[in-house]
Amino acid sequence: MPSAIPLATYRLQLTADFDFDKAADVVPYLKALGITHLYASPVMKARKGSTHGYDTVDHSQFNPELGGEAGFARLSDALAQHDIGLIIDFVPNHVGVHFADNPWWLDVLEWGQTSPHAVSFDIDWDQLAFRARGGVLLPILGSSYGEALERGEIELRYDPNEGSFSAWYFEHRLPIAPERYGEILRMIVKEADAGGTEAGKRLLSLAARYTGLRRPNRKEAPAFKVELKEIAGSADIITHGLAAYRATKDRPAQTLALHHLLERQNYKLGHWRLASSDINYRRFFDVNGLAGLRVEDASTFAATHRLVKQLVADGKLQGIRLDHIDGLRDPAQYCQRLRRLVRDAQGNTKPFYTVIEKILCEHERLPHFAGVQGTTGYEWMNVITQVLVDAKGLEALDETWRQISNRSPRLAPYVKDAKRRVLETLLTSEFTVLTRLLARIANGHYSTRDFSADSLRQALELYVLHFPVYRTYLTHSGPTALDRKLIDDTVARARAEWFAADEGIFDFLRDALTMDLLTPGRPPHSAPRVRRFALKVQQFTGPMMAKSLEDTAFYQFHRLLALNEVGGDPASKGLTIPAFHEAMRARAKEWPQGMTATATHDTKRGEDARERIAALSEIPGEWTSAVSRWKVLNAPHLALQGNLRAPSATFEYMLYQTLLGAWPLEGPDASFVARIQAYALKAAREGKEETTSWLNPHEAYEDGVNSFIDKILDPALSGEFLEALQTLARRIALLGALNSLGQLTLKATLPGVPDFYQGTEYWDLSLVDPDNRRPVDFAARQEALGSLEAPDWRGLINIWPDGQLKLAWTRHLLKLRNELADVFALGEYEPLEVRGAHADHVIAFARHRGRAAAIVVVGRQFAPFTQGGRKWPTLEGFDATVDISGYTAPSLAGNELPLAQAFREFPAAVIEARAASAIRPPRQRVRA
Asked: Quick one: which of 14, 141, 893, 895 has the most CB atoms within 10 Å?
């Protein structure tokens, strides 16, 4: 039986090409590696062809493309056979919509607000302008609505198996409201000239039977459809009669007929670009095909979690990763419900491992949610990177960036500008919903009715621009003290930039955000509107920050790309070793069971590419000189046209870092140029600079960037540059590998559960998705692992570029972790003092529980000991000693551990030890 709390997890990305059976084949390898829990990407039914699974269309069944229920059963059996637990990635916040595969969404399109599933979607039904009836905007057209209509791209069809009518736009099904079936049948019979036939008479009789408003209604419609499809000859008449709605430019009457029919539906078709300004359903960020779910609705929660509950009850699921927790209206309520569901399913005898995808900004603390052990570990990935970079080198890189960008090396201005851009383009419609709601609240009482809609919009915009984190966590009962302070501070910063007369508008905004407007004794305002506003703002600021920071500013601010990671601070000054120890001691007390990740499916680059780039901070002078030379060598390859420079100077600087991070030591293969070009295209569009973006691609700029990459990576055109790049890449690769081994050691030994992303037990030089989701050669890894039962560390060091060194060290660390399970899972964290001239190059600590202990020593910033990355470090003259007073081990003598002894051949060491006397750990409460 696997442990309730994992010792080590391994993330697999499941797809149609790597399904449940392929995952089952990998299970013996994971067991040999030392993994205790398989951590799978979403397993519920997703959109056909999905490469990630986050576009779930049916939470009640397994994804048939992964093998369905039978395939999952085989995977479950394989896991049980090898005593490995299962954690699944679960998506409570949104579902895939449009197309023709989500039964709930199709029902809402057919029945509108009367659909029992309408409550499951966050739709503002009355927002559509110039429309008598409520509806949902469907921004799915590739051209304007009029053009699509006149080109015949929107087609009315009949399904004889269902007895139903739908409009179709290519692969998108748009059910017709049954209340319009009568007029459709009359039109069809007339067009087919079938009024005198028996089938035609029966069709007209059926149409005439349901008179009055909204008929046939939901109760009557099933019988109507059954009778329709059972009328002999009806299908032929309908096939011919549908010509009455066959729209083309030269058939104005039929085009108008189809238009009038579509205008009377529960939806409104529109060009995809309308989404940013007019969409009226909550989305996942700005993705039109992912609609937000209202899991705060009890029936929606129950329906979407039924399969999860069954898996828990059957003992086939030991943990869950909750995707995008910040998208939920009330995460605290959701986590309470989930814990109750788990307890109902398995009892309260053991904990159920639950982690949340939560991105914490610098110095932000994670709120405590019921049953949650921690996050998926982005914050700890950044802590590790920040302690490994050279802070002195960052100061030099500040100046390099200042010269290249002509801007201050401060991140805040980039984020603020990015937020303005996102407000004006991507999330305008969501922001409009909030400002309208705020204006309605103000208009609800005479004391606030003079706050104009425009003034309220400007005040709320300033608040959003200055909001420093992803979201607050208000509930219906109001804000916590921490959230109240956050709102107060943000309002104060917004007020400081307000140049019009205040007259209490920011006090009103603050009280609406905190729901203090509802305090007894205050002027009465609509309680439902105030609560809806305050809670919806929380769901807005998360996507706002994500699109502005991660998906814009991170692709503009390129001082050192290693720091541009999810949840990170690209302008970080680095982390001192004492500050690192303080963070780890706090973590051991507060979140000892959360994940520690160094790579995920969402990271901006592979974990070893990141550590290579981090090593540039160790040789900033040489790096700056190299860039200066490369810019001169590659200047002839720039695309110059008027004021256009492709790539821009800052983008070119980013490309050089990217090349060093991803450069294969054996030389690039045939796919390398295309991979870099694909990355550059995504980076350029995400950065939204140089007039290109996903909304408005700038063809000339993008072609210029592609051409530049082609030419600088062509040996015939850029031999001198490529030789210089290869020379520096070799050095950076060695320094990066040493960083990576330190990163791996810290991940495996710090408080928390180490998570290994698929394939990263070899060097991971991938780029952002989809590059980091390429197939993994597990057969090669399994074969290599079998030959590493007794590793020859010196031999592996000699061939370190092939990745077997990292694989062997991973298995070694996980073996220790399994042997000292209590020490690493439940033990205390104690910093160890390091003395000597090179003390700042060493991170040393002990993990202990009772008398069992482990001493961990990790080196960092190896440039001085490797001739700047030219050879593997020789540490005979390494002047540093770790004070190990209170610990003993067979290989240790006395109270001091010389680092020259600890490191011998390897840049890190984990030593099993004993505490001189039992250290009684404080009693820890395990979150169930």
From this structure: 14
- Name the DSSP class of 273: G
Question: Rounded to an integer, what distance in angstroms lies between the CA atom of residue 316 and that of residue 836?
Answer: 52
pTM of the model: 0.95
Distance CA 686, CA 448 (A): 40
pLDDT tens column, 615-643 = 999 999 999 999 999 999 999 999 999 88
Question: Would you give the DSSP letter of residue 323?
Answer: T
Q: Which residues pair with 46 in a beta bridge?
A: 56
User: Given a cut of 80, is residue 439 above it in pLDDT?
Assistant: yes
Residue 872's alpha-carbon distances to 344, 591, 765, 864, 875, in angstroms, are 56, 36, 20, 11, 10
Cα–Cα distances in angstroms (integers) from residue 453 to residues 280, 411, 419, 459, 523, in the given order: 19, 32, 21, 10, 20
Quote the tokens at residue 618.
């160790």
189-217 per-residue burial string, b: 16 or more CB within 10 A, e: under 16: bebbebeeeebbebbbebbeebeeeeebe
How far is residue 513's CA from residue 429's CA, in Å, rounded to a whole number? 19
pLDDT at 925: 42
Q: What is the pLDDT of residue 211?
A: 82
Reply yes or no on whether the pLDDT at 154 is more than 60: yes
The HSE-up count of residue 504 (CA atoms within 13 Å, CB side) is 9
Residue 194's closest CA among 231, 142, 147, 143? 231
pLDDT digit string (tens) for 82-140? 999 999 999 999 999 999 999 999 999 999 999 999 999 999 998 887 777 889 999 99
Buried b (16+ CB within 10 A) or exposed e, 384-400: bbbbbbbbebbebbbeb
Question: What are the φ and ψ backbone dihedral angles of 39, each rounded to 5 degrees?
Answer: -120, 105
CA–CA distance, 343 with 88 (Å, rounded to integer): 18
pLDDT at position 580 over 70: yes
Q: Which residues contact 850 (CB under 8 A, 6 or more apart)?
A: 822, 915, 918, 919, 920, 921
Residue 918 pLDDT: 63
Strand-pair partners of 291: 95, 283
Beta bridge partners of 374: 355
Distance between first and last Cα of the chain: 18
Counting beta carbons within 10 angstroms of the beta carbon of residue 453, is it exposed (0 to 12), middle (13 to 18) or buried (19 or more)? middle
189/237 Cα distance (integer angstroms): 7
Residue 770 — φ and ψ, nearest 5°? -85, 5
Using omega within 30 degrees of 0 as the cis cutoff, is the peptide bond preceding 715 cis? no
Q: What is the pLDDT of residues 57-75, one digit of tens each?
A: 999 999 999 999 999 999 9
Task: Classify residue 65 as left (phi > 0), alpha (psi -120 to 50) or beta.
Answer: alpha
In the chain, what percentage of residues exceed pLDDT 90? 92
Which residues have C-beta within 8 Å of that of residue 907, sequence separation ≥ 6? Answer: 738, 741, 742, 858, 859, 862, 873
Q: Where are the beta strands (DSSP E) in 323-394?
A: 353-356, 374-375
Amino acid 375 reads T
